[in-house]
Design goal:
about 35% helix, elongated, about 20% strand, 10 helices, 6-stranded mixed sheet, alpha/beta, single chain, 12 strands
């Protein structure tokens, strides 16, 4: 066999040998790097340890039982192996060197609560006194209207030539002044910018406060000064009471009184406590009297088939029944609005704002006889 034939074999052997040499050199280099790291760690340990006879003394750990900890640790480390390049690294177990500390529990660690950004508060009233009335807008500061009244009734002519029945009709010109209902609250610009939900909450609360005051004015305003002339101050008094009547009897008889005045009861206004009385009344055997439906097809509260407005503005034992669509009309000079402004005292320089809710209304009562006001007998 000549050299030409051996050349491929020699090349293969040389290539394999070179690969093994490269792998060995890489391993040596890795060992050297590990040695450098271990030596650096040992140097740091020696430099930082207190010089009190032990590599690490009790003061390093604040415990007298750890006086020989440094010495034990150094003995556990394979220092000779590192220096002779036999070991790449060394380790020492510390189990039992330290006393058991307090167990970490959720009570000892402050936990951050999740913040719900929604502000939950009272909701707007589902229905109010204005919802029973015809409402229209006006651009005037006062409303003039005619209030009519009638006495007598049609009759049968007894004989030809006899006098026929005569009706007496009266007319009077009335004026309803536009009145302002308002409320406001101060707030800082920053809190409104930073808490978006708060602005909506304030808006809702102001409108709700406005609606409650409006209910009170429309019901019992006495018409003096800047007050509205309320419905109950002009209504006909309930006059159909009978001995032994309960709250449900009174309510039903008041509806009849409207019918006898040639009206159709379109609403009842009572206090929440009065509604409770109506729906919880029982007979002598403890059975509920309210066997009729307490809501209509639209989900509105009803009593004796008449829609009910439940309002805190009504006295606890008071009630108002009426043919509201014919008895009165509400004029909106300015619908309920909420405005924000800095033009109040020194609010501009203090970064404060005044949030104002306001409305202007006038109430005209054309047919007081189609309104019946009264009180339930004491429970």
């Amino acid at each position: 066999m000549n050299m030409t034939d051996l050349q491929p074999v020699i090349s293969q052997f040389t290539e394999a040998a070179n690969k093994k040499i490269d792998a060995a050199m890489a391993e040596v280099k890795s060992v050297q790097e590990e040695q450098k790291k271990a030596t650096a760690r040992l140097f740091d340990l020696e430099q930082n340890a207190p010089r009190t006879g032990n590599l690490l003394d009790a003061q390093s750990f604040g415990d007298s039982t750890s006086a020989n900890l440094g010495h034990t640790l150094v003995k556990s480390l394979d220092i000779d192996g590192l220096r002779s390049n036999v070991s790449k690294s060394t380790r020492a177990g510390l189990q039992g060197f330290f006393g058991q500390k307090a167990t970490v529990t959720s009570a000892s660690v402050p936990m951050q609560a999740q913040r719900d950004p929604v502000i939950y508060g009272p909701l707007a009233r589902p229905i109010s006194v204005r919802d029973l009335l015809n409402v229209t807008t006006t651009a005037a500061g006062a409303i003039e209207y005619v209030r009519g009244s009638r006495t007598g009734a049609a009759g049968i002519q007894a004989a030809e030539g006899d006098a026929k029945a005569e009706l007496a009709m009266g007319w009077s010109l009335q004026t309803a002044q536009v009145r302002t209902i308002a409320c406001w609250i101060p707030a800082s610009r920053q809190v409104l910018d930073d808490a978006v939900e708060l602005a909506g909450y304030i808006d809702l609360e102001l409108r709700d406060a406005l609606r409650l005051t409006e209910d009170s004015q429309l019901l019992v305003g006495d018409g003096t000064g800047s007050n509205v002339q309320g419905l109950m101050t002009m209504a006909t008094a309930y006059n159909r009471a009978q001995a032994g009547d309960k709250a449900n009897d009174t309510m039903r008889r008041a509806v009849t009184q409207i019918q006898l005045a040639r009206g159709v009861a379109s609403g009842i206004v009572i206090n929440p406590v009065a509604l409770e009385r109506l729906e919880l009344e029982k007979d002598g055997e403890g059975r509920y009297l309210s066997t009729f439906a307490v809501t209509d097809s639209n989900g509105r509260t009803v009593a004796w088939r008449v829609p009910v407005v439940v309002s805190d503005a009504m006295a606890e034992n008071g009630f108002l029944v009426g043919d509201f669509t014919r008895a009165a009309k509400l004029y909106d000079r300015q619908e309920a609005t909420v405005e924000v402004a800095t033009q109040h005292a020194d609010f501009f320089t203090r970064n404060l704002v005044a949030i104002l809710a306001e409305e202007r209304v006038a109430l005209a009562i054309m047919r007081p006889d189609l309104l019946v006001a009264g009180e339930f007998a004491a429970p």
